[in-house]
Amino acid sequence: GGKLPVAVSLADALLERVASWNRRTLDPFAERAYFYSSWAYEKAGKIEAVRSRLLAAQRTSCLHHNTACQATLLNLLLRSYMSAKLFVQADKLLAKSAFPEQASNGQLARYLYYTGRIKALQLEYSEAHRCLLQAQRKAPQSSSKAVGFKLTAHKLGAIVQLLLGEIPERAVFRASSTRAPMRPYLKLVQAVRTGDLAAFRDAMAEHAAVFAADGNAALVLRLRQNVIRAGLRNVSLAYSRIHLSDAAAKLALDTPGDMESIAAKAIRDGVIDATIDHEAGVLISSGSADTYSTLEPQAAYHKRITFCLNLHNDAVKAMSYPPDAHKGDLPDADAIKERQREEQELAEALAEEDEF
Question: Taking a C-beta distance cutoff of 8 angstroms, is the pair 210, 184 a contact?
Answer without folding.
Answer: yes
